[in-house]
Amino acid sequence: MNVLFYRRFNLIWSTLHSVREILLTLLATMDVENDDIDNTGLVVTEYLTNLIRHSEGEDEAVTLVIGRTLNSIKIELIDPTSYFHPTTSKDQHTDLADGELREGGMGLALIEHYFPDFRYFEKHGKNHFSFALPLKKVKNRVVIIDDEHASLQLVNAYLERDYDCHAFTDEHQAYQYLMAHNVDLLLIDMNLNAMLADEFISNIKQLSHLNNIGIVVISGDGSRETMLKAHLCGVDDYLVKPVKKEQLEIVCERVKSRCVSRSVNISKGELAAHKDQFELGALSAISFGNVAAGSGGDVLVSVNKQDHSYVFFGDVMGHGESANRVALQLKGYILGLLNCPFDSLADFVNGLAKSLPNQDFMQQSLVTFIALEISERHISLINAGHPLPIVLSQQHIVTNIGNSQPLLGLDRDYEYHSECYQLEHGHSLVMATDGLFENHENCFELQQLVEAINTANISAIGTDLSQLWYKCLPRLSKEIDDSSLLVLN
């Protein structure tokens, strides 16, 4: 088995989102059926949820291993916990013969229903849970660009049996195709007619949907200077003409595998440094999703200043790596402003409205956000184009609060004003980025989503706010945008 991903995670709630994100990112690139992706998300979410509930926190960990065989993807979770023992639980405490799907326990009936060939055993004091997903017989898409017809036809002939090939002699036509399609590999000559290859490659790297494309240069120029120039452009490999079929096939497979691994390369340091639960004066805050995992275009910044706390919870337009780059710069910018003197929350936001649109990193992006000032249980709030937050009472009554004011930069003369609320004891203030309910087909705002969850199972949430996030999670393949949840109580 070729191991594509191997990482240890602390058994905390942010791990659930991180693992789901890794599974979706990797499986979507590996030609797995959407139903299998959804079933994987359901089973792994159930498994991890139970481990996290019964773990002892960050002192315990689970290891995720994702590997590839010739015809399948293998998912394996390894944990040292004593909460569940596979033999006693499966054989004595759960009747799997009736075919019922159950939540709770370790979801054994759920697992066996979707993955009847799963394996679960104990080795060296650790539980190993694994199952396999069959691969679709779908060819990877390759774009080939070369202004020499004979060379173009030869490379196309070498690869067309194993790849979905699209060959171009004109780089402008190729660029139009690349803008509109997901492509796995780009094979390009270093000397194009009208546009230099390094300029073309630079333009391709600006397309967010091609963040993980593999790029191979095939050129008649084997000089050290030209090869160095190509590698400085960020290409994955360089071949000198004439190219043999076996050599080309090996390089394409190597680059493709390398790009798959790169697409799920999340920094251990970022995950370890993040804390998803924190204090805001008298209130407790917990975050879930992208802001908890430190990925995507969602932003959360909080600062405690004497007897007041300030929170900026925002959503950068777009998603994935391109939005993440903007979000990281925005986070640093907001943190700097929050640490500077200002008279009021409105003063802070109006200063932000005048300065942020002029920053280089925001020139092609928009951001919606909620800014909060907290003193004891008194909350001042400004909502700039963000989904309306809700108050969730102990009786599960859901109430929208506040009004949405214009996005930053749309009206330079607009003066933002704050709205004030007193959060009662036992009530929770719930905020989300719009990806949370956009990932659900029939919900168009946070209130609808939470009410749908309460209607389906009003007793499931209780005072366990992690259950609110768990119930909000969509089917894995339906996640179309970054999503985060922030709860204060």
From TrEMBL:
The modification 4-aspartylphosphate is found at D189. Residues 141-256 form the Response regulatory domain. PROSITE patterns: RESPONSE_REGULATORY (PS50110). Pfam families: HATPase_c_2, Response_reg, SpoIIE. InterPro entries: Bact_Sigma-Reg, CheY-like_superfamily, HATPase_C_sf, HATPase_dom, PPM-type-like_dom_sf, PPM-type_phosphatase-like_dom, Sig_transdc_resp-reg_receiver. Keywords: Hydrolase, Phosphoprotein. The keyword Protein transport does not apply. SMART domains: PP2C_SIG, REC. Gene3D superfamilies: 3.40.50.2300, Histidine kinase-like ATPase, C-terminal domain (3.30.565.10), PPM-type phosphatase domain (3.60.40.10). It comes from the Bacteria. The keyword Phosphoprotein applies. This is SpoIIE family protein phosphatase. It comes from Pseudoalteromonas spongiae. The lineage of its organism: Bacteria, Pseudomonadati, Pseudomonadota, Gammaproteobacteria, Alteromonadales.
